[in-house]
Amino acid sequence: MKKWYKLDNAAKLFPSVTNTKNTSVYRISAVLTNPVDVDALQQAADTVFDRFPMFTVKLRRGVFWNYLESSTDKIVIAEDQQYPCRNIDPTTNNGYLFKVLYYNNRVSVEVFHALTDGNGAVEFLKSLLYYYLMYMGHEIDTEDRILLADSGVDIHDMEDAFRRYYKDCYVESVRNSRAYHIKGTAFEQFGNNVVHGVVSASQLNALAKQKGSTITAYLSALLSYSIYQTRIKYSKSNAPVVIAVPVNLRKAFPSRTLRNFFGVVNLGARITEDTTLDELIFRMNEMLKYKTGKENLQNIIYNNVALERNKATLFVPLFLKNWFVNLGFHMLGESKRTLTLSNIGNITLPQQMYKHVELIEALVYPSNKSPMNCGISSVNDKLVITFTRNIVESDILQYFFSTLAGEAGLEVKIYSNDWGISE
Protein backbone atom coordinates (compact mmCIF):
# COMPACT_ATOMS: atom_id res chain seq x y z
CA MET A 1 0.00 0.00 0.00
CA LYS A 2 1.38 3.39 -0.98
CA LYS A 3 2.05 5.99 1.68
CA TRP A 4 1.51 9.68 1.26
CA TYR A 5 3.15 12.61 3.00
CA LYS A 6 2.38 16.27 3.43
CA LEU A 7 4.97 18.63 1.99
CA ASP A 8 6.97 20.30 4.72
CA ASN A 9 6.45 24.00 5.23
CA ALA A 10 9.31 25.19 3.01
CA ALA A 11 8.54 22.61 0.32
CA LYS A 12 5.11 24.07 -0.40
CA LEU A 13 6.70 27.08 -2.08
CA PHE A 14 8.66 25.30 -4.78
CA PRO A 15 6.00 23.58 -6.95
CA SER A 16 4.25 26.97 -7.28
CA VAL A 17 7.26 28.98 -8.47
CA THR A 18 9.11 26.43 -10.60
CA ASN A 19 9.54 26.71 -14.37
CA THR A 20 12.24 25.97 -16.94
CA LYS A 21 14.11 29.19 -16.05
CA ASN A 22 13.64 28.87 -12.29
CA THR A 23 14.03 25.14 -11.81
CA SER A 24 14.38 24.96 -7.99
CA VAL A 25 16.88 22.15 -8.68
CA TYR A 26 20.26 22.28 -6.92
CA ARG A 27 23.21 19.91 -7.18
CA ILE A 28 25.67 18.41 -4.70
CA SER A 29 28.61 16.60 -6.33
CA ALA A 30 31.56 14.54 -5.16
CA VAL A 31 34.68 14.51 -7.33
CA LEU A 32 36.36 11.16 -6.68
CA THR A 33 39.98 10.13 -7.10
CA ASN A 34 39.08 7.47 -9.70
CA PRO A 35 36.58 7.18 -12.58
CA VAL A 36 33.09 6.07 -11.59
CA ASP A 37 32.16 2.41 -11.99
CA VAL A 38 28.58 2.49 -13.27
CA ASP A 39 27.53 -0.95 -12.01
CA ALA A 40 28.79 -0.27 -8.48
CA LEU A 41 27.03 3.09 -8.41
CA GLN A 42 23.74 1.48 -9.48
CA GLN A 43 24.17 -1.14 -6.74
CA ALA A 44 24.71 1.63 -4.22
CA ALA A 45 21.57 3.44 -5.40
CA ASP A 46 19.57 0.21 -5.05
CA THR A 47 20.95 -0.31 -1.53
CA VAL A 48 20.10 3.14 -0.14
CA PHE A 49 16.59 3.10 -1.64
CA ASP A 50 14.69 2.05 1.49
CA ARG A 51 16.73 4.25 3.85
CA PHE A 52 15.53 7.49 2.24
CA PRO A 53 11.74 7.19 1.79
CA MET A 54 11.39 10.97 1.55
CA PHE A 55 13.40 10.85 -1.70
CA THR A 56 11.56 7.97 -3.36
CA VAL A 57 8.27 9.81 -3.73
CA LYS A 58 6.24 11.36 -6.52
CA LEU A 59 4.58 14.78 -6.40
CA ARG A 60 0.80 14.65 -6.63
CA ARG A 61 -1.74 17.46 -6.92
CA GLY A 62 -4.57 17.60 -4.41
CA VAL A 63 -7.55 19.93 -4.39
CA PHE A 64 -6.11 22.20 -1.68
CA TRP A 65 -2.43 21.18 -1.37
CA ASN A 66 0.20 19.22 -3.25
CA TYR A 67 1.36 16.06 -1.53
CA LEU A 68 4.00 13.32 -1.92
CA GLU A 69 3.22 9.67 -2.65
CA SER A 70 5.64 6.81 -2.02
CA SER A 71 6.92 4.74 -4.93
CA THR A 72 8.75 1.44 -5.38
CA ASP A 73 10.14 2.29 -8.82
CA LYS A 74 13.89 1.91 -9.17
CA ILE A 75 16.37 4.79 -8.92
CA VAL A 76 17.99 4.78 -12.36
CA ILE A 77 21.40 6.41 -12.47
CA ALA A 78 22.36 8.22 -15.68
CA GLU A 79 25.40 9.75 -17.34
CA ASP A 80 25.55 13.52 -16.92
CA GLN A 81 25.27 14.85 -20.48
CA GLN A 82 23.64 18.27 -20.12
CA TYR A 83 24.14 21.44 -18.13
CA PRO A 84 23.50 21.17 -14.37
CA CYS A 85 20.39 22.17 -12.41
CA ARG A 86 18.03 21.58 -15.31
CA ASN A 87 14.32 21.22 -14.72
CA ILE A 88 13.60 17.62 -13.64
CA ASP A 89 10.92 16.01 -15.78
CA PRO A 90 9.40 13.24 -13.63
CA THR A 91 8.00 11.47 -16.71
CA THR A 92 11.55 10.68 -17.86
CA ASN A 93 12.87 9.94 -14.37
CA ASN A 94 10.59 7.16 -13.04
CA GLY A 95 8.46 9.93 -11.56
CA TYR A 96 11.16 11.03 -9.11
CA LEU A 97 12.17 14.58 -8.22
CA PHE A 98 15.87 13.84 -7.87
CA LYS A 99 18.59 12.35 -10.05
CA VAL A 100 21.79 10.40 -9.49
CA LEU A 101 24.28 11.32 -12.23
CA TYR A 102 27.86 10.39 -13.06
CA TYR A 103 30.55 11.72 -15.39
CA ASN A 104 34.21 10.66 -15.36
CA ASN A 105 35.22 11.01 -11.67
CA ARG A 106 32.10 12.89 -10.55
CA VAL A 107 28.97 11.59 -8.78
CA SER A 108 26.17 14.15 -8.58
CA VAL A 109 22.83 14.27 -6.84
CA GLU A 110 20.38 16.80 -8.29
CA VAL A 111 17.37 17.53 -6.10
CA PHE A 112 14.12 19.43 -6.56
CA HIS A 113 14.01 21.62 -3.46
CA ALA A 114 10.53 20.40 -2.44
CA LEU A 115 12.16 17.13 -1.32
CA THR A 116 14.90 18.36 1.01
CA ASP A 117 17.50 21.03 1.65
CA GLY A 118 21.28 20.82 1.27
CA ASN A 119 21.69 18.97 4.56
CA GLY A 120 19.35 16.16 3.45
CA ALA A 121 21.02 15.91 0.04
CA VAL A 122 24.49 15.69 1.64
CA GLU A 123 23.36 12.83 3.90
CA PHE A 124 21.97 10.97 0.88
CA LEU A 125 25.19 11.53 -1.10
CA LYS A 126 27.34 10.34 1.83
CA SER A 127 25.37 7.10 2.11
CA LEU A 128 25.48 6.60 -1.65
CA LEU A 129 29.27 7.08 -1.72
CA TYR A 130 29.79 4.77 1.27
CA TYR A 131 28.01 1.87 -0.44
CA TYR A 132 29.63 2.68 -3.78
CA LEU A 133 33.09 2.42 -2.21
CA MET A 134 32.05 -0.77 -0.39
CA TYR A 135 30.98 -2.37 -3.68
CA MET A 136 34.31 -1.27 -5.15
CA GLY A 137 36.01 -3.41 -2.51
CA HIS A 138 37.02 -0.78 0.03
CA GLU A 139 36.56 -1.43 3.75
CA ILE A 140 35.36 1.65 5.62
CA ASP A 141 34.56 2.15 9.28
CA THR A 142 31.47 4.39 9.28
CA GLU A 143 32.35 6.03 12.64
CA ASP A 144 28.59 6.66 12.98
CA ARG A 145 28.83 9.29 10.23
CA ILE A 146 26.79 7.43 7.61
CA LEU A 147 23.07 6.60 7.50
CA LEU A 148 23.16 2.85 6.86
CA ALA A 149 20.61 0.98 4.77
CA ASP A 150 19.99 -1.70 7.41
CA SER A 151 19.51 0.75 10.28
CA GLY A 152 15.87 1.33 9.45
CA VAL A 153 14.12 4.65 8.98
CA ASP A 154 14.09 6.82 12.07
CA ILE A 155 10.84 8.67 12.68
CA HIS A 156 12.90 11.79 13.42
CA ASP A 157 14.22 11.73 9.83
CA MET A 158 10.68 12.32 8.61
CA GLU A 159 9.53 15.12 10.88
CA ASP A 160 8.40 18.54 9.70
CA ALA A 161 10.70 20.46 12.03
CA PHE A 162 9.03 23.75 11.14
CA ARG A 163 5.86 22.54 12.85
CA ARG A 164 7.79 21.15 15.81
CA TYR A 165 9.51 24.45 16.56
CA TYR A 166 6.70 26.81 15.62
CA LYS A 167 5.51 29.09 18.39
CA ASP A 168 3.47 32.24 18.36
CA CYS A 169 5.59 35.35 18.72
CA TYR A 170 5.68 39.05 17.96
CA VAL A 171 7.30 39.84 14.62
CA GLU A 172 8.04 43.24 13.15
CA SER A 173 7.75 43.47 9.38
CA VAL A 174 10.10 45.77 7.53
CA ARG A 175 9.41 46.92 4.00
CA ASN A 176 12.76 46.61 2.25
CA SER A 177 13.45 48.33 -1.03
CA ARG A 178 14.11 46.39 -4.20
CA ALA A 179 17.63 45.03 -4.49
CA TYR A 180 20.12 45.61 -7.29
CA HIS A 181 19.67 43.01 -10.04
CA ILE A 182 22.44 41.71 -12.25
CA LYS A 183 21.70 42.02 -15.97
CA GLY A 184 23.39 40.12 -18.75
CA THR A 185 23.25 38.43 -22.11
CA ALA A 186 21.59 35.02 -22.17
CA PHE A 187 23.64 32.20 -23.66
CA GLU A 188 22.90 31.52 -27.31
CA GLN A 189 22.00 27.96 -26.30
CA PHE A 190 20.04 28.13 -23.05
CA GLY A 191 21.80 26.49 -20.13
CA ASN A 192 23.98 27.05 -17.09
CA ASN A 193 27.66 27.83 -17.05
CA VAL A 194 29.50 26.70 -13.93
CA VAL A 195 32.80 28.13 -12.66
CA HIS A 196 34.49 26.54 -9.64
CA GLY A 197 37.26 28.17 -7.64
CA VAL A 198 39.18 25.96 -5.19
CA VAL A 199 41.06 27.47 -2.24
CA SER A 200 42.51 26.18 1.02
CA ALA A 201 39.69 26.10 3.58
CA SER A 202 42.08 26.65 6.50
CA GLN A 203 43.81 29.60 4.81
CA LEU A 204 40.51 31.25 3.91
CA ASN A 205 39.24 30.70 7.45
CA ALA A 206 42.42 32.27 8.86
CA LEU A 207 42.00 35.25 6.54
CA ALA A 208 38.36 35.70 7.57
CA LYS A 209 39.29 35.47 11.27
CA GLN A 210 42.02 38.05 10.73
CA LYS A 211 39.26 40.36 9.52
CA GLY A 212 37.11 39.47 12.54
CA SER A 213 34.69 37.56 10.31
CA THR A 214 33.37 34.17 9.30
CA ILE A 215 33.94 32.65 5.85
CA THR A 216 30.29 33.24 4.88
CA ALA A 217 30.34 36.91 5.89
CA TYR A 218 33.75 37.47 4.28
CA LEU A 219 32.71 35.98 0.94
CA SER A 220 29.33 37.77 1.03
CA ALA A 221 31.18 41.07 1.48
CA LEU A 222 33.69 40.31 -1.25
CA LEU A 223 30.91 39.31 -3.63
CA SER A 224 28.93 42.48 -2.85
CA TYR A 225 32.07 44.56 -3.36
CA SER A 226 32.77 42.82 -6.68
CA ILE A 227 29.26 43.61 -7.91
CA TYR A 228 29.73 47.27 -6.99
CA GLN A 229 33.17 47.55 -8.59
CA THR A 230 32.15 45.89 -11.87
CA ARG A 231 28.54 47.07 -12.26
CA ILE A 232 27.01 49.62 -9.88
CA LYS A 233 30.05 51.90 -9.92
CA TYR A 234 29.44 52.55 -13.62
CA SER A 235 25.67 52.92 -13.42
CA LYS A 236 23.22 55.39 -11.92
CA SER A 237 21.73 52.78 -9.60
CA ASN A 238 21.69 53.35 -5.86
CA ALA A 239 19.90 50.08 -5.12
CA PRO A 240 21.41 47.96 -2.35
CA VAL A 241 23.29 44.76 -3.06
CA VAL A 242 21.47 42.02 -1.15
CA ILE A 243 23.00 38.58 -0.63
CA ALA A 244 20.44 35.93 0.38
CA VAL A 245 22.07 33.37 2.70
CA PRO A 246 20.23 30.10 3.45
CA VAL A 247 20.69 29.06 7.08
CA ASN A 248 20.54 25.48 8.41
CA LEU A 249 18.02 25.80 11.25
CA ARG A 250 19.16 22.49 12.79
CA LYS A 251 22.08 24.28 14.45
CA ALA A 252 19.76 26.44 16.56
CA PHE A 253 16.81 24.03 16.74
CA PRO A 254 18.11 20.45 17.08
CA SER A 255 16.53 18.12 14.55
CA ARG A 256 17.60 15.07 12.58
CA THR A 257 15.04 15.67 9.85
CA LEU A 258 16.03 14.83 6.29
CA ARG A 259 13.34 17.16 4.99
CA ASN A 260 13.65 20.91 4.46
CA PHE A 261 14.57 22.83 7.58
CA PHE A 262 16.23 26.06 6.56
CA GLY A 263 15.60 29.79 6.63
CA VAL A 264 16.98 32.61 4.51
CA VAL A 265 18.56 35.78 5.87
CA ASN A 266 19.34 38.77 3.67
CA LEU A 267 22.64 40.63 4.01
CA GLY A 268 22.21 44.00 2.34
CA ALA A 269 24.35 47.08 1.88
CA ARG A 270 24.27 50.30 -0.09
CA ILE A 271 27.82 50.59 -1.38
CA THR A 272 29.46 53.84 -2.46
CA GLU A 273 32.89 54.79 -3.74
CA ASP A 274 33.88 55.55 -0.13
CA THR A 275 33.01 52.05 1.12
CA THR A 276 36.07 49.89 1.76
CA LEU A 277 36.11 46.10 1.58
CA ASP A 278 37.16 45.89 5.24
CA GLU A 279 34.22 48.07 6.26
CA LEU A 280 31.88 45.89 4.24
CA ILE A 281 33.27 42.71 5.83
CA PHE A 282 32.62 44.15 9.30
CA ARG A 283 29.06 45.19 8.41
CA MET A 284 28.22 41.83 6.81
CA ASN A 285 29.61 39.90 9.77
CA GLU A 286 27.63 41.94 12.32
CA MET A 287 24.46 41.57 10.25
CA LEU A 288 24.94 37.82 9.83
CA LYS A 289 25.64 37.39 13.54
CA TYR A 290 22.42 39.19 14.46
CA LYS A 291 20.22 37.57 11.84
CA THR A 292 21.35 34.03 12.70
CA GLY A 293 20.64 34.55 16.39
CA LYS A 294 18.06 32.13 17.76
CA GLU A 295 15.42 34.81 18.35
CA ASN A 296 15.56 36.02 14.76
CA LEU A 297 15.52 32.45 13.43
CA GLN A 298 12.45 31.76 15.58
CA ASN A 299 10.79 34.68 13.80
CA ILE A 300 11.63 33.10 10.44
CA ILE A 301 9.97 29.85 11.50
CA TYR A 302 6.92 31.80 12.68
CA ASN A 303 6.63 33.72 9.41
CA ASN A 304 7.00 30.52 7.38
CA VAL A 305 4.35 28.60 9.28
CA ALA A 306 1.86 31.35 10.18
CA LEU A 307 0.30 31.62 6.73
CA GLU A 308 -0.10 27.86 6.45
CA ARG A 309 -1.86 27.79 9.83
CA ASN A 310 -4.24 30.57 8.84
CA LYS A 311 -7.67 28.93 8.72
CA ALA A 312 -8.73 31.27 5.93
CA THR A 313 -6.25 29.57 3.57
CA LEU A 314 -7.18 25.96 4.36
CA PHE A 315 -9.95 25.64 1.79
CA VAL A 316 -8.55 27.91 -0.91
CA PRO A 317 -8.19 25.79 -4.09
CA LEU A 318 -4.64 24.84 -5.07
CA PHE A 319 -4.64 26.82 -8.32
CA LEU A 320 -5.41 30.03 -6.38
CA LYS A 321 -2.78 29.22 -3.74
CA ASN A 322 -0.24 28.72 -6.54
CA TRP A 323 -1.08 32.12 -8.02
CA PHE A 324 -0.71 33.95 -4.71
CA VAL A 325 2.47 32.07 -3.74
CA ASN A 326 4.04 32.83 -7.11
CA LEU A 327 3.13 36.51 -6.82
CA GLY A 328 4.52 36.71 -3.30
CA PHE A 329 7.71 34.92 -4.30
CA HIS A 330 8.49 37.44 -7.02
CA MET A 331 7.43 40.53 -5.06
CA LEU A 332 8.85 39.63 -1.65
CA GLY A 333 11.59 37.16 -2.57
CA GLU A 334 13.11 37.53 -6.00
CA SER A 335 12.83 41.32 -6.16
CA LYS A 336 14.44 41.76 -2.72
CA ARG A 337 17.70 39.93 -3.41
CA THR A 338 20.62 40.29 -5.81
CA LEU A 339 21.80 36.69 -5.58
CA THR A 340 22.01 33.70 -3.26
CA LEU A 341 25.16 32.52 -1.51
CA SER A 342 24.66 29.09 0.05
CA ASN A 343 27.44 27.67 2.24
CA ILE A 344 26.76 24.02 3.07
CA GLY A 345 29.96 23.98 5.13
CA ASN A 346 32.60 21.34 5.73
CA ILE A 347 31.44 17.82 4.85
CA THR A 348 32.32 15.33 7.59
CA LEU A 349 33.16 11.83 6.32
CA PRO A 350 34.56 8.68 7.92
CA GLN A 351 38.37 8.94 7.91
CA GLN A 352 38.78 6.08 5.42
CA MET A 353 36.53 7.83 2.88
CA TYR A 354 38.55 11.04 2.64
CA LYS A 355 41.26 9.51 0.47
CA HIS A 356 38.64 8.62 -2.15
CA VAL A 357 37.03 12.08 -2.33
CA GLU A 358 38.89 15.01 -3.92
CA LEU A 359 36.22 17.72 -3.76
CA ILE A 360 32.61 18.39 -2.86
CA GLU A 361 30.76 20.92 -5.06
CA ALA A 362 27.51 22.76 -4.31
CA LEU A 363 25.60 24.28 -7.25
CA VAL A 364 22.76 26.76 -6.69
CA TYR A 365 20.36 27.15 -9.61
CA PRO A 366 20.09 30.62 -11.20
CA SER A 367 16.74 32.30 -11.94
CA ASN A 368 15.33 35.16 -13.99
CA LYS A 369 16.01 37.83 -11.35
CA SER A 370 19.18 36.15 -10.05
CA PRO A 371 21.02 35.00 -13.19
CA MET A 372 24.07 34.11 -11.10
CA ASN A 373 24.17 32.33 -7.73
CA CYS A 374 26.93 30.92 -5.56
CA GLY A 375 27.42 27.66 -3.64
CA ILE A 376 30.23 26.87 -1.18
CA SER A 377 31.37 23.55 0.26
CA SER A 378 34.56 22.00 1.58
CA VAL A 379 36.22 18.66 2.25
CA ASN A 380 39.88 17.65 2.72
CA ASP A 381 40.78 21.34 3.39
CA LYS A 382 39.66 22.16 -0.16
CA LEU A 383 36.92 24.75 -0.24
CA VAL A 384 35.05 25.07 -3.53
CA ILE A 385 33.33 28.34 -4.44
CA THR A 386 30.94 27.62 -7.30
CA PHE A 387 29.16 30.18 -9.47
CA THR A 388 26.27 28.93 -11.59
CA ARG A 389 25.07 31.45 -14.16
CA ASN A 390 22.84 31.68 -17.23
CA ILE A 391 24.41 34.85 -18.68
CA VAL A 392 27.56 35.34 -20.75
CA GLU A 393 29.17 38.13 -18.74
CA SER A 394 31.85 36.98 -16.30
CA ASP A 395 33.16 40.34 -15.03
CA ILE A 396 31.89 39.86 -11.46
CA LEU A 397 33.48 36.40 -11.21
CA GLN A 398 36.80 37.67 -12.60
CA TYR A 399 36.95 40.52 -10.10
CA PHE A 400 35.94 38.23 -7.22
CA PHE A 401 38.54 35.53 -7.89
CA SER A 402 41.25 38.06 -8.84
CA THR A 403 40.77 39.77 -5.47
CA LEU A 404 40.95 36.43 -3.63
CA ALA A 405 44.17 35.56 -5.45
CA GLY A 406 45.65 39.09 -5.44
CA GLU A 407 44.81 41.20 -2.41
CA ALA A 408 43.87 38.21 -0.23
CA GLY A 409 46.91 36.24 -1.39
CA LEU A 410 45.16 32.88 -1.72
CA GLU A 411 46.06 30.30 -4.33
CA VAL A 412 42.92 29.79 -6.44
CA LYS A 413 42.45 26.91 -8.86
CA ILE A 414 39.72 27.59 -11.45
CA TYR A 415 37.84 25.06 -13.58
CA SER A 416 34.55 25.20 -15.48
CA ASN A 417 32.05 23.23 -17.55
CA ASP A 418 32.61 25.85 -20.31
CA TRP A 419 28.91 25.97 -21.21
CA GLY A 420 28.21 28.75 -23.70
CA ILE A 421 31.87 29.67 -24.14
CA SER A 422 32.71 30.23 -27.81
CA GLU A 423 35.86 28.68 -29.19
TrEMBL record:
Name this protein carries in UniProt: Alcohol acetyltransferase
What is the originating organism of this protein?
Paenibacillus pseudetheri
